[in-house]
Amino acid sequence: MSRVCALTGRGTRVVRRVRRRGRARAEGGVGRKVTGVTRRTQKPNLQKKTVRQGGRLKSVWLSARALRTLTRGPVEGMELV
Q: How many C-beta neighbours within 10 Å does residue 48 have?
């Protein structure tokens, strides 16, 4: 299975990297111009952890946000071990 958070469903996102040149109008220039737009990926901060789900131990990928949530208590029948 791909690396997706077992609790939140976070996965890889495709975003755009925008390259600009020029000086901003506020700084006395004529404005910034876009000279290139490329696609890139943003990967979530996933960590492999062991959780108890339905009474069984299971090794799953969890995002950093999901880990913070699980440290406060069980969520959706899932708890950290």
A: 9
What backbone phi and psi angles, to 5 degrees, belong to 22?
105, 180
**Dist. CA 51–CA 48, nearest whole Å:** 10
The two three-digit tokens of residue 76, written as one number = 């959706």
Q: What is the pLDDT of residues 9-52, one digit of tens each?
A: 999 999 999 999 999 999 999 999 999 999 999 999 999 999 99
Instruction: Please answer whether residues 77 and 22 qualify as being in contact, where contact means their C-beta atoms are separated by less than 8 angstroms.
Output: no
Contacts of 5 (CB under 8 A, 6+ apart): 11, 44, 46, 61, 62, 63, 66
